[in-house]
Design brief:
Order of helices and strands: HHHEEHE
Shape: flat
Low-confidence stretches: 79-84
């Protein structure tokens, strides 16, 4: 044995002697419960009296001259018939991506994966995509990633496009 194990024996012997001595002398065992807290007393008091309400008096405004005539609002500019609709522009750009083979992943086609991904699109004032994230996935990570790539590749959307919109991206096999 290691010499440090011998220190335990005197400690045990001393503890046994103290307990035996308290038993022989009839000392009560030490109490393990904390003393009970004093009872709480609570009373409801009447609310303080409300301050006296003084009526508010405003000085009379000086008589004003006739109000200035309202400026006519300029009419809203009518949308130009040559400006492309932002949704048609997105479809056109998705179609170009499909023609280049960038839209529908070849692996997804080979595996027969189909689905719809709902993508949140954030646009800068110049029509460029600043951020995009999947709001509702298709259930296939491959299609979700392809939808994000397609939306992030959009360029120069028209000025009438909303700055924040949800775009459904559908992947269907024919």
């Amino acid at each position: 044995m290691i010499p440090t194990d011998y220190r335990l024996a005197p400690a045990l012997l001393l503890s046994l002697l103290v307990h035996l001595l308290s038993f022989l002398l009839g000392l009560p065992p030490p109490s393990r419960r904390p003393p009970a807290p004093p009872p709480l007393l609570a009373q409801l008091q009447a609310p303080p009296p409300a301050p006296e309400v003084v009526p508010l008096e405003l000085p009379e405004p000086p008589p004003a001259a006739t109000p200035p005539p309202a400026k006519p609002r300029p009419p809203k500019p009518a949308p130009s018939p040559a400006a492309p609709d932002w949704q048609r522009e997105i479809r056109r750009q998705f179609g170009e991506q499909q023609q280049r083979g960038e839209f529908y992943p070849a692996e997804a086609i080979a595996r027969g994966l189909q689905g719809e991904v709902l993508v949140l699109l954030l646009l800068a004032p110049d029509g460029s995509v600043t951020a995009a994230r999947v709001e509702q996935g298709s259930g296939h990570r491959l299609l979700d990633d392809a939808a994000l790539r397609a939306v992030r590749a959009l360029r120069s959307l028209p000025a009438d496009a909303p700055r924040e919109t949800l775009i459904p991206v559908r992947f269907r096999l024919r």
